[in-house]
Amino acid sequence: MESEVTMNVSRRKATAAGHVLRNCPPESQEYQDAIAVMLQWREQHIVPTQESFRRLLEISKEIPGSVATYRLKRQSSILAKLTRRGNDFELGAIDDIGGCRLIVNDMRQVEEACRRMRDLFPEAKPPKNYIECPESSGYRSYHDVVQMRVGEGKSSLLYRVEIQIRTKLQHYWSTTVEAAGEIYNLDLKTPKPEEDCSEEKERRIRDSLRVASAIFAMKEGTPMPIQFKGTDEAQLAKAVRSSADFETLLDDLEASDDTVFPVSWADAVRAEGTGLYLLEFSRTEQILNMRAFPADASDALDTAVLAYQNAENAGNNDGSAPFDNVVLVYARNPDQLKLAYPNYSSNVQAFVMQVKNFMQ
């Protein structure tokens, strides 16, 4: 099996491995072989994701205040997606094994970025615009799945890479969902019908997050989640002020936010200036690392992506990862780097401030 896995894995073979991972016991040899195929399939997404990020950086450099990030979906996240109840994801068809993100200031810049995407990624699939059509959970973002061909002749393969474009407000909301999930030990990222929420607490938290999404959509002049269709600003403000659940969520978010962006990092970013930054964070140990790759170096992106992959691999060998969150970021100053800060603290602060401003 090992000799087969060292060769490129086809989409069909990846899909077959995904079926094994969904249906076979983890202790079986068949399952372990499928894990090896999955990891090779993930590895093959490095080159197309790097090229997608390279093109996205061209857009980021043209849009003042924007931040671009690069990441590969981790083994645990791929497995969780494959085995998610009620879904039949195929490993070969997962669009976001490789992913990039562009965070911009406002909707005008979202539109500008989308226009440039069409120029730089002519082979993109039809986009999913969750800003114009928010998910019932309240999630809002613009998703493009671009297609990048790697290899030549019969060995060539078309890979899919997901590129998300979102405003700062949309990013504050999304990262707060992750932070709230950690506070309450709930998976709040996964879409779930209300009837499938076994705990009343989970239903109340999800409801409060939907309200926050509606507030931010109203601020941006874009459609609100369907549950709030026809709701005006006065009605929304009244609902927020009278909701004990919403107040509890804000209190819990503020109480949990005891980690601030390190001053030494801000000084270092000011000294380094515009460039690529590798952020490594351990939630268990509360350890933070930052490495800079100056933008003026000709091989900065190649070097940074290799460092990212080495950091990821260090956590995949024995399960005792020194860092459980690794992200590669293009930023110009400390405030921009805070947007991609992997322990969410800065984004939670901004989320709470925006909501409280609305409530006043």
Describe the structure in your own words.
This protein has helices at residues 2-5, 11-23, 29-43, 46-62, 75-82, 107-120, 168-184, 200-220, 233-241, 244-256, 263-272, 300-314, 334-339, 345-359; strands at residues 67-72, 98-104, 128-129, 142-150, 157-167, 275-282, 287-294, 325-331. By secondary structure, it is an alpha+beta fold. An 8-stranded mixed beta sheet has the order 3-4-5-2-1-8-6-7, with helices on both faces. Strand 6 and strand 7 form a beta hairpin. Helix 7 runs antiparallel to helix 8 (200-220) and helix 7 (168-184) packs across helix 14.
Fold topology:
Blueprint: H1 2-5, H2 11-23, H3 29-43, H4 46-62, E1 67-72, H5 75-82, E2 98-104, H6 107-120, E3 128-129, E4 142-150, E5 157-167, H7 168-184, H8 200-220, H9 233-241, H10 244-256, H11 263-272, E6 275-282, E7 287-294, H12 300-314, E8 325-331, H13 334-339, H14 345-359
Parallel strand pairs: 2-5
Antiparallel strand pairs: 1-2, 1-8, 3-4, 4-5, 6-7, 6-8
Helix pairs in contact: 2-3, 4-6, 7-8, 7-10, 7-14, 8-9
